[in-house]
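Re: the pair you flagged

First of the two:
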Amino acid sequence: MINADHPELSSWVEVQPQSDFPIQNLPFGIFSVAGKLPRPGVAIGEFILDLSAVHDLGIDLGSFKKEELLAPVLNPMMAHGKKAMAMLRERIAYLLDAKNDELKGLSEKVLVKQSHAKMHLPVHIGDYTDFYSSIDHATNVGMMFRDPANALLPNWKHLPVGYHGRSSSILVSGEPIYRPKGQTRPDPEQNPVYGPCRLLDFELEMGFITFDGKPLGQSISTAEAEEHIFGMLIFNDWSARDIQKWEYIPLGPFLAKNFASSISPWIVTLEALKPFKVKGEKQEPAVLPYLRFEGNHNIDIDLEVEILPEQGEGKVVSHSNYKYMYWNMVQQLAHHTVNGCNIRPGDLLASGTISGPDTGSYGSMLEISWQGTKPVQMPDGSERKFIQDHDTVIMRAKAEKNGVRIGFGEVRSKVLPAL
């Protein structure tokens, strides 16, 4: 298995030391260049390996057909399942290995500079579910809005809380979002008003993309879960806090969440992330049998969020880590399907806001500014309680081991005024 446990491997493609995409990574995405339709590719250094171009040279890529390597989403390839996709990734690593010159002399035919390409949504997302699985985030929110002595609701440590979101408004990095409009109630003694959101927030999350699941009515166990998970990406779950505060009782998030979410364009496979697995927090009280698992399923992924004003210098406002999650991916998928709910190739399940134990690791402006009572000072002298029009929010993620960096790229989104 090609990953950071093999730091000795290198590629004939030049890869800078701080690149997110060494040969040990090889994430999948969808790209296009001028005059050509979107198609699958694999990131290597500053380049993209065009899989259809490799196929056109008569080089074996396993069971994948030409039309699947020209599809505008990865779903047709993912329908082959985990084993086939893992074998394809190993085959690509072999072709890119410094010891193999099979493709080296044909690089101009199969490699595209990332700077010359446009990235697209990597999968058709049929369904999207957002969890609420960071104990530090849930505790912070509970302290703000409920009794600080009982910040977590009674169910929180017994199941991965989640809700079904809106897949149609998920955007790829680089696409702007518009400030949402809706009902708010600024004064609890007055009637609600309609207008643009005033408390726009980001939520620092990671998401995972699924392969096909089991037939409707059957469940996926924690032991089986990873066989149904393709890989991960960065997820910015935009939130309109003032709209949310007024609407969320009794049925939870709606207009405050469904206006936009943003994702990074590259899917980093579980195979690439295997060396970064770590033990998670001890879960007390003990969970029910269907949520129990063996081995380590938290992942040590460093995360950061930067706010970049339209004019002026940006500021990193959060350093967090995916290892802080209380509920892990296999538990989330097992819980999602325990009632017989089916999943399909390309479904997206997001972690929920990832906050750590200290103020520098909070994953939302709601926490960072503590409901606006502790504004963030920006380099240009301005301050941020929440996100302003024309701000760009940039999220980055990487895991490092043995001198190898497995990165996710970034998700970058600019906020435009309400239409």
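Second of the two:
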Amino acid sequence: MAERVVLAMSGGVDSSAAAVLLHQQGYDVVGLFMRSGESESACAIPTTGLLPVVSGPAHRQGCCSSEDAADARRVADRLGIPFHSLNFQEEFRRIKDYFADEYLAGRTPNPCVQCNNWLKFGKLWEFAQQVDANYIATGHYARIQHNAAENDWGLYCGHDDNKDQSYVLFGIRKELLPNILLPIGTWEKPEIRELARDAGLRVATKKDSYEICFVPDQDYAGFLKRYRNHESTAGDFVDMKGRVLGKHDGYEHFTIGQRKGLGIAFGEPRFVIRIEPETRQVVLGLKDDLAVQKIAVTQVNWLADKPQTDLRCLVKVRYRQHSEPCRIVRNPDESVTIYPDSPIFGVAPGQAAVFYDDTRVLGGGWIQPPQ
């Protein structure tokens, strides 16, 4: 009897190709589309980019629209696999709460990671157990491998360097790794599109989307006002000495290290150095002011054995940034302190710091403001 796997289907090409591969490999595949249950967003399971993918109003094309649900169902029908569309309104509200809390606290949230932790590899696994499935699967570009010599499971980078999504998966519970399948992790994106095309799937040419599913048009201020009745986050741009340089429309529009889109001109490039929600000030400075030589990280999730001594590894502090060689020190409270070999620029509180040994994800946690 074939082993059953519940696959998160978003209606995009990646999860659709994953369905084809699992079906070809002989699994008993069950497709699941996750709905937010709210009119502004019928969010499925996004699998691309730093942040979840946009849905917006029903007429807007995106990963979480009604069109995506229809695309996912068509793929399931073509492959002859069962398909479910379930309401996860409470879980999506938790992600929205997190997003709003982080931005109003002056941090840069990463809801894609939390969506993975709470939904894709949380509620998805709960559903899988209800239908007697052995595995859950998604269309992420990453790999899970078993080391027979050490009888250990690990999370690894995907083969496509341009699409690797291991960074956003660091929060998976280690004990779940043997029950997770990532079928497209050994493929590159052009190959995935060709696979979908050969399977006769019209999503083969469907564009990827990289926006936030519950914030149409990236209007963070509008979302905060609607969701939290927050009237204004507007305030002053100030320099490193506190001198007012100009006005901004809302500090949620900015992240540490940002240079473009400030809406104010200077004789030399200025960058966002710090965000101070209490005063609604956005502090600007020069590039050298961004240099960080110590990073505090909490809520650490280890996907390999916890180091007993200082750890030398690579660390990535943004999804699209290169990893940097660092020394990691575990603290008595299970937080860690990262000491990069060379200063890292643009470290944003609220983002994830993920630790790598070559291509293996050792673990990761959440960056805290400097003390």
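The longest strand covers residues 28-35.

-B.
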